[in-house]
Amino acid sequence: MLAIRDLHVYYGGIHALRGIDIDVPDGKIISLIGANGAGKSTTLKSIMGLVPKAEGHVYWDDVDITSGKTKDIVGEGIILCPEGRRIFPDLTVDENIMCGAYLRKDKEEIEKDKEWVYSLFPRLKERTWQLGATLSGGEQQMLAVARALMSKPKLLMLDEPSLGLAPLVIKDIFTIIQKIAAEGVNIMLIEQNAKAALDISDYAYVMETGVITMAGPGKALLNDPRVQQAYLGE
Fold it and tell me: pLDDT, tens digit, for every residue of 128-162?
């Protein structure tokens, strides 16, 4: 479905991505793990057209979208849920969620999807009237994912969904990610929490300083001594 080939990105004089290759096939949860500054978020931003690509290509269903504009990439069903939640603090939960459907015209389907989103996040349904700024960190992360789902993504890219959250909340978030995948939404997951990510991933990539250094099934990487030593503290 999504294929990245020999992708290079520069930030000023920094070679942030050094010829990476990544595949996100249909019906899979794919993770990209690595330390801070490895280039994980840059990968997602480059897919979305938010940072310029120096070399390489991004393909979506065999169509080259390397030079595509962000709004057109969103229109294709590729949706980024960014790091740091970035909800609208002065809008209610319901208003935030409806912002995700801004490109859509199918009113009946929008209402169905909103009910589906609230079924995934019952805590949000209890707070539809509440301002985004008054939610807890975990609730804000749930709201960010819920808003992204209202765009009806074919591929949902999640950037550090567990960042700064308590362990119990992290468990809830990853359970919901699996439920979303089970509903037919393809997932690309960027995470520093390697254990949680690899545990639910069909396939995963390890990135270090802009280079893919390892790749394989999530469970296999989870049991790899090199990954355990570098990312799991074992």
Answer: 999 999 999 999 999 999 999 999 999 999 999 98
pLDDT at 43 over 70: yes
Eight-state DSSP code of residue 161:
T
Judge whether 28 and 186 are in contact, CB under 8 Å. Answer: yes
pLDDT tens-digit readout, 194-225: 999 999 999 999 999 999 999 999 999 999 99
DSSP of 10-77, one letter per residue?
A: EETTEEEEEEEEEEE-TT-EEEEE--TTSSHHHHHHHHTTSS--SEEEEEETTEE-TT--HHHHHHTT
Site of tokens 């978030």: 173
DSSP helix/strand/coil, 165: coil
Mean pLDDT of the chain: 93
**In this structure, what token pair is assigned to residue 20?**
């990476």
Tokens standing for 79? 């949706």
State the distance between the two ends of the chain, measured CA to CA, in whole angstroms.
35
DSSP 70-135: HHHHHHTTEEEE-TT----TTSBHHHHHHHTTTT---HHHHHHHHHHHHHH-HHHHTTTTSBGGGS
Backbone dihedral angles phi then psi of residue 17, each to the nearest 5 degrees: -125, 130
The answer to whether the Cα torsion of 196, 25, 44, 102 is positive or negative is negative
Strands 186-191 and 29-33 come out as: parallel
Q: What does the radius of gyration of the chain's CA atoms come to, in whole angstroms?
A: 17
Position 84 pLDDT exceeds 80: no
